[in-house]
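In this supplementary section we document a worked example of the pipeline. Step one takes a protein sequence of length 122 as its only input; no multiple sequence alignment statistics are reported here. Step two produces a three-dimensional model, which step three serialises into structure tokens for compact storage. The input and output of this example are shown verbatim.
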Amino acid sequence: QVQLVDSGGGLVQTGGSLRLSCSASRRTFSSYAMGWFRQAPGKEREFVAAIRWNGGSRYYADSVKERFTISRDNAKNTVYLQMHSLKPEDTAVYYCAAARRLSTESPTYDYWGQGTQVTVSS
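The serialised model returned by step three reads:
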């Protein structure tokens, strides 16, 4: 079992930046691929970014490329999502998740954080 705790959300103006963090409970965190997903009101959960266990590969949704960066620090059992140039359409609850293999598909992920709200005002 891996417990994940998301944090770092908040209210920011258009064009602003936020950094989300996700802390994992287990030292075996380093063996998991990690992903970030988001869900806006009335919409399905969508993929945002993912990173291989060793940071060697990273995937991004087209809508966030060049603006968001996923990274991880296995020594701290933490994965980050640095978000720049935020837009109102980025408003959503953001969830981190852990999987045995790198994927952009939510069913692949076994463990999920509780979510953190990001609101971008226009």
